[in-house]
Amino acid sequence: MNYKTVIGLEIHAELLTNTKIFCGCKNEFGGDVNTHCCPVCLGLPGSLPVLNKKVLEYGISAGLAFNCDIARHTKMDRKNYFYPDLTKAYQISQYDIPLCENGFVEIEKEDKTTKKIRIRRIHIEEDTGKSLHDTTGDTLLDYNRSGVPLIEIVTEPDMNSPEEAYKFLEKLKEILLFTEVSDVKMEQGSLRCDVNIDLIREDGLKSNIVELKNLNSFKAAVKAMEYEVKRHIELLESGQNTVRETRRWDDSENKTISMRSKESVQDYRYFPEPDVVDIHVSEELIQKIKSNLPELPDQKRERFIKEYSLPEYDSRILTASKEISSYFEEVVKSFNEPKMVSNWIMTELLRRVNDECIQLSDLKFDKEDFIELLKSISEGKINNNAGKKVFRIMFETGKKPQDIIKEEGLVQVQDEGTIREIIQNVLNNNPQSIEDYKNGKQRAFGFLVGQIMKESKGKANPQIVNNILKEIIDNM
């Protein structure tokens, strides 16, 4: 029988504010354990939370970027549950009046059509502490993360395959990066994703919804979803059904493992948070935030295609992050050859950056040095292969391109007289290739060009070589 997969996502993104959501403690990844916390973070008796206005503004920015309606009046709620790293035994979150509702993100399907994934809500809340398990089996608690501001993004169950969910997550990550409300570093826990998944058989039989947690990468999320699709089908085919539960993904075993039964809303016993005043959002604040929103990935992608005449593929790579797109545009301002800049960023720069796992801001050479290298290639001072060698040394040492060109003796031979002498020597030693070319064998011409470049140690200008070689042979 045929099955329809139904997937909804819950994404938690930590916000890039300087301080936490309800106190003045640093909002910063790392640091010695329990050094970024205070009585408010720890939920000590007598401490009172005060909402950080920047958290509200970042939440509105995200909501607008995801096409949401922004609530003019909202509030914080108390969500009651017990985890070892939740000191108060409740979390300050939002329940019935979220800050943002009714948004959407459009993804591109395999057939190039677009699909709208609806966003049910985006709300603000505090993060919990972190449990640390040592080698003796003891569990220690670090409260540096407690009180870090979050937005939780909840989608409608509009995704019908792990691939669609992956595309949505990639799009969501791009938008959050461009709006600069979160750094979305999954390895540091600033972006976390939970999956709700079930299947509907063509005769109407449904599997029970299963929640997947502990997904530390988008690839892990896709693997977990694929595993669950297979597991749900096998159970239904055998006359059984899934249990409504929360499961975790085990990377080492490549399978999901049951954690606990899934909670319902009633289990959390929500009620309005009495220690935080209600929130009133003015139209003026919304318009101010809207006017300051940056150009978002889809808009930038279309502009790059039109303004710089780039292929769609190039445009997608260059707009994958705000850092890369800004770097490209800054280089093009000084060196107006967009396609050449695009090629070098995609093939040489990003390859090495990704191999070394660094940011563009960590490069050892300046943007002006990169521009100088591209100009040297474009003006024929060095050829493309020599340019790659120069770039490698720049990347590894931070040396100036002109210094490398001189030290390595890479200046391209432009003098026609010198090139004619080299060509004549090669022709004298390869009479058969001349005859082959005259008999219509085009590969012979390429062979001769290769011999000339070898004779010149790669320094002869290839365009001049081609022009003079053709002229000489045609006149023989």
Commentary on this structure:
The strands form 4 sheets. Strands 2-6-7-10-1-11-12-13-14 form a 9-stranded mixed sheet. A 3-stranded antiparallel sheet has the order 5-4-15, with no helix packed on it. A two-stranded antiparallel sheet has the order 3-16. α9 packs across α11. The model has no long low-confidence stretch (mean pLDDT 91). The protein is elongated. It has 3 domains: 3-284, no CATH class; 293-408, no CATH class; 416-474, Arc Repressor Mutant, subunit A (Orthogonal Bundle), CATH 1.10.10.410. It has helices at 39-42, 53-65, 162-179, 218-237, 265-268, 283-291, 297-308, 312-318, 322-334, 338-356, 367-378, 384-397, 401-408, 416-429, 431-438, 442-455, 462-474; strands at 3-14, 69-70, 73-74, 77-80, 90-93, 100-108, 114-126, 130-133, 139-142, 149-155, 191-201, 210-215, 245-250, 255-261, 271-272, 279-280. With 476 residues, it is α+β, with helices and mostly antiparallel strands. The chain has 17 helices and 16 strands. This is Aspartyl/glutamyl-tRNA(Asn/Gln) amidotransferase subunit B. It comes from Alkalithermobacter paradoxus. Belongs to the GatB/GatE family. GatB subfamily.
